[in-house]
Hints:
Structural class: mainly alpha
Radius of gyration: 28 Å
Helix content: 40-55%
Number of helices: 29
Number of strands: 5
Amino acid sequence: AREHFGPKQLEVLPLGLSFPLLEARRACRHLASPHWPVGACALLAREDLARQAQVARRAASISLSPGTAPSEAPEDDPDGMLALARSSSLRFARDLRLHEVRRLLCSSRPIPLRSVGTNAEMSEHDLVHEQQAKLALLCRRTMALSVGRGMFTLASSPAELVESLRLAPLDLKGRTSPKAATVELDTSAFPPDHLMWPEFHNGCASALRLSPPGCGPVQHGELGRHWIMHNQPKARQHAYAGFLLGMGLQGRLNSLANTDVYRLMSQGHHVTMMALLVGMAAGKRGSEDPAIAKMLCLHIPALHPPSFTELELEVPALVQISALVGVGLLYQASGQRLMTEVMLGEIARPPTNELLGCRESYSVAAGIALGLVSLGRGSDPGLADLFIEDKLGSYMHGRAPVYSSPDGGDGMAKEPTASLATRCYRIREGPRVNVDVTAAGATLALGLLFCKSNNASVAAQLEVPHTVHALRCVRPDLVLLRVLARGLILWDSVRPTDAWVNSQLTPSTGGGERGGLEPDSTTLRLARLNSLAGACLVLGLRFAGSCNQAAHDVLHAKVHHFYALRLALGGAAASTEGTRADRPTVESCLGTAALAMACVMAGSGHLGSLRLLRVLRRCADNDVSYGFHMSISMAIGLLFLGGGRLTLGTSKAAVAALVTSLFPRFPLAPTDGRYHLQALRHLYVLAAEARCLEAVDVDTGEPAMIPLRLLLRGREGR
């Protein structure tokens, strides 16, 4: 090769000389290395190795690197799903499942409206009223599709520096079938900010569609600070905030200058501030960057110095919650003592005037932040004097923690105090802990602190109640979180069997105790349903992205079980007060089980799972909430993550991101943010991994179908 001796020179040699050279070339062809020069690869007719070396050098710095789809005209493909379906056609070449997913997740076209039954006695006013009622139910589903679409199109489109920002429209119009007439949605009965979160999710999905930095073809340079700031629209500010979060999750906000950050933060738009804090922390997660840390600490009142009065800076509740999560991401798995201590105290923060409507969300965010900062470091000796386990136990069970304090005191918890500027004038709580607020965040924090530790003594605090008296002391939805946190701790003991699932359930009867409850009371039923959903979610996280057939079969059966319960509760005979109380729980558990099934089969595009999710998506009546539609759209998006090119990881960081994203308490309405910050639903990006092997023709550059044989290593080598 160094002498420029190629195939043409080999052909003109006499047979006696060329034969041994040809034999040597044949023997070396299968032993060639991609690190060889291009001339050597050409001599052996292995141009594919030189091409692989070029691709590897270009994508060496990133882990999320699926193939990119060719760009389409904005008017033909506003959401990028058509180009993705075409580029992934060889991935699912036997059917049109990608086009079906595109239809299920499309929110940029008018909603088809079937003709409303015409009655001779129905007036025109009644007909319009019935049309509006039906359109409102379908729009509730459309507004929840953007999160799933972001999963489906994740990292599928090349980033073009010369193109402007393309935000897919959120079309809430209806179109009747006989006359193709357009029906406008009457928004007079909706709150003014009813489109805030749907527009935010739509903008975030548009950003996540772009390939990460350094991935895919780069013709005009990477997207930098000038492109991000130049494309800020005058309208659709909520969509631009979502776009900033998506860019931050991909690490593109690291290019912003301090002046750019100040310009965005000084606008006073709460959603933009929230997106910027979480996005910049996600782009620098685990780095403890001092500049970003100062910005986050400025928006957390607990980290202000004593001389700083709260009246000087009024931080909105939405921004405070996002700052907590940002601290968790920035100090991820570092075990930083100050942040650990502050986050532990913020779980039980006293009520304040600005947090009246989202105290639970603040506590959950603090618990997630605590779990992220000390991820898997619950047994760290440097944190032993903080008594984290005891304090989290008091937050879960409501008892005052007892421990030996360093100063020789009794160690009893004292009533938290608040300053005059932050004291709440509507709620006053005594020295006891309000477990209705703190239990969810403390449970998640304990599970993440001891994630994969197999610590049986810590897991004993998370035992599900087995007596009627114990069930009376625990809210039914908290049973789900206990099962989830227990599964995170006892990671290696999780088994994809019905026997393991049944071992996590609460009893179906009271066992003959005197607890003041009937054996078949509502409390027993709801606790058992939540424990079953929690076991399903643990299975989904434990076998995420593995396509484990046993886990899929178990979860598929549980989804059918919850769906049958929902159909039974929706019948005409289900009119008692107890069954009406079961409907929201069954709906939430059904969405959780569907998400768990999609996690196991993430990126596989499993046809049986898609058929089941398509049946669940058809539910669009008055009893179906916005959160259920979101969970089903997320399940469909996970099933086809990145168009079938990506899947989910099971590292500690990936599990923590999935727990935050799939938190099993979904919003009841588009404006609901009481229990969980909706922006955190997009943190699944931090758990995505590229595991798609694509064969490309070396001459044409087009994907090709070739037979492959894979040898899988054992658990020790994984």
